[in-house]
Amino acid sequence: MGIIEALVFASERPIREDDIKKVLPAVKPKDIREALQDLIEIHDKNSGGMYITQVAGGYQFRTRAEFSQYIRSLLEIKPKRLSRAAMETLSIVAYRQPVTRQDIERLRGVDSGGVLKLLLDRKLLKIMGKQDIPGKPLIYGTTKEFLETFGLKDLTSLPSLKEMNELFDEGEIEQQTSLLFGDEDTQTE
User: Fold this and answer.
1) Is 63 helix (H, G, I), strand (E, B) or coil?
2) Alpha-carbon Rg of the chain, whole angstroms?
3) Residue that finishes a domain, picked among 56, 74, 92
């Protein structure tokens, strides 16, 4: 179990069970899965500064949200926040992907080119290809970085639209994005 914990810790991205199997070919996949679940439980019970979670198709150490301000201070990270427009656009893409810019703009009612560029630059969205219609518009979808940023195992982990409305009503979405990106609003439209 110590080796698997070290592999999770050393990996820059969420490490998949298959990646662990490559390093430990003699270990059965079932044993790898059980070790990962044991590590998750151990770190949850420990209530220290870090925990292991399943995110973006793999496993990753994460620091607890309550310590984010100290980490930003130590690493001198200038916080960035997603604007409401960026969150709207990201939500549309996440729930309706693959989606074109025209689809996004029809739903939002405003030009979304700048917001799409911001989300592409932050690697939260990617261009998945071109739609096979006249003009061949680009098709957008979310990335693994999107899953990592929002702590999602996969797209099925997205909250339902009802849950999203409740989170917006309770102000939890703003609080969550503030923890993830800080307090600055980088894009207003």
Assistant:
1) strand
2) 19
3) 74
For residue 19, give both structure tokens.
């990646």
Residues 6+ away with beta carbon under 8 Å from 119: 86, 89, 90, 93, 125
87 contacts: CB under 8 Å, gap ≥ 6: 173, 177
Q: Which residues contact 48 (CB under 8 A, 6 or more apart)?
A: none
Full-prediction pTM beyond 0.70? no
Residue 164's contacts (CB-CB under 8 Å, 6 or more residues apart) are 91, 173
Q: Are 110 and 189 in contact (CB under 8 A)?
A: yes
Give yes or no for a contact between 20 and 7, defined as CB atoms under 8 angstroms apart. yes
Q: Is the pLDDT of residue 180 over 80?
A: no
Task: Give the residue-averaged pLDDT of 10-28.
Answer: 94
Strand partners, 60: 53
Q: Phi/psi class of residue 84: alpha, beta or left (left: φ > 0; alpha: ψ in -120 to 50)?
A: alpha
Domain that holds residue 156: 84-181
At 127, which CATH number?
Answer: 1.10.10.10
pLDDT band (50, 70, 90) for residue 169: low
107 near 92, Cβ under 8 Å? Answer: yes
* 120 closest CA partner among 79, 89, 84: 89
β-bridge partners, 130: 138
